[in-house]
């Protein structure tokens, strides 16, 4: 009885405490839920570790910058090469003259047959179409009408050919190769409306003769629509050299564009003897199209997904797979670290050709910390100076093209049309250094940079970038797009090379550098094949052969332009420029 009497007061006190315990527990649960809501999703850092959002750089002492697990020196360190020139470039030169077998246009052209072209995409994609249009007209031996530029796609640029290129120079320079007129003649006193059709991508000589020539004989005038990359990489040497004459000599920008572009180059030269031009390609649409992820959490996913939804044909890619395959642009910080590892110090001046950078100044901050001498056309020219060009995307792109072409080193962050055309042009005019990140290899290096020293990081970057620096013979002839690797139009001065070897021996030194570089070229080509992202498409003959093997092609095709026939996503055209 005494035990029960003592127990009742105990339970009474416990009953009075229960509401208090409940209130405290509920408060703690609410606080925990609130903190969980504010915290970032745990999966972000686990699934995509060290490629952190935009920046891991901190400015430290005067002699170094902190990035991740190591301190980045402000100078470029010792290099085993001249960082402003390509090895052995003096032994190679552009050569695009026609052979004696290539007859004058007057001897082969049918003056009553006309080929019109409607190009597609941005400035540089349209440039490839113009170049290939001249060659297509020569294959068909017809008169070419000055190509129409794309005024309806994403950019809505109203410029025509004569606003961008010197049309009279274009026609005059090519007069011995192809007859060119500015517009179709009248037919029966009325405007002539040509038959419209398309040809497959990578269409070769036989393809044009089989598909287009019969229509030309019947209708006398044909317009090829959506004309981009519609000509094979595999043509006769004379036709390839014609491509080079068009691309590197006949296509000259108009005087206003040349004058402003040369002034931008002059202002960069006033600041420094040497400068790098960087085609950054870190715009929101580029990242959305690539399907890559950069650690920005749900905000990044929402923003890039919203852009992707504008194009219904765009597939959703696996971000990790895209990165492993080398299809993701490097972040601005990664570009900066790569350049520092290649030997470019903080005193180097950089001109950036880029649209709106995703993440804005937060994204650019680490690159600017590494390279504080950071410029663009908007910072070295006034708003008034750029006003005649600023409403036209193609004219603004032409200004960037000129500065990038004249730079001592050109760095590209993707393999789009501008990168390909400039890479080929810089090879043709003296193999000026052109750096393309070996993204397949660098991806793994950046993932693990927290666990390496700067010295090891530098050594591996330089090793990975062999074959990606724009040096002679680093890519085997015939590989890639001809606009990027115009091997038929690159000649070697074997006499000068042999003379250099003899003079070196006379001085009692074996020509180790030349031999070493020649050997390295073979190694570099193998490495390029292994590391290069697979951007290639089959040529027309290969494609048709494959279809025939599978019983899907019977030799007929849709020749005339069918508006319902969809082609590549317009976004892809936009981003590749």
TrEMBL record:
<dbReference type="InterPro" id="IPR019378">
    <property type="entry name" value="GDP-Fuc_O-FucTrfase"/>
</dbReference>
<dbReference type="GO" id="GO:0006004">
    <property type="term" value="P:fucose metabolic process"/>
</dbReference>
<feature type="compositionally biased region" description="Acidic residues">
    <location>
        <begin position="526"/>
        <end position="546"/>
    </location>
</feature>
<keyword id="KW-0294">Fucose metabolism</keyword>
<keyword id="KW-0119">Carbohydrate metabolism</keyword>
<protein>
    <recommendedName>
        <fullName>O-fucosyltransferase family protein</fullName>
    </recommendedName>
</protein>
<feature type="region of interest" description="Disordered">
    <location>
        <begin position="502"/>
        <end position="577"/>
    </location>
</feature>
<dbReference type="Pfam" id="PF10250">
    <property type="entry name" value="O-FucT"/>
</dbReference>
<keyword id="KW-0808">Transferase</keyword>
<comment type="similarity">
    <text>Belongs to the glycosyltransferase GT106 family.</text>
</comment>
<keyword id="KW-0328">Glycosyltransferase</keyword>
<feature type="compositionally biased region" description="Acidic residues">
    <location>
        <begin position="559"/>
        <end position="577"/>
    </location>
</feature>
<dbReference type="InterPro" id="IPR024709">
    <property type="entry name" value="FucosylTrfase_pln"/>
</dbReference>
<dbReference type="GO" id="GO:0016757">
    <property type="term" value="F:glycosyltransferase activity"/>
</dbReference>
<feature type="compositionally biased region" description="Polar residues">
    <location>
        <begin position="516"/>
        <end position="525"/>
    </location>
</feature>
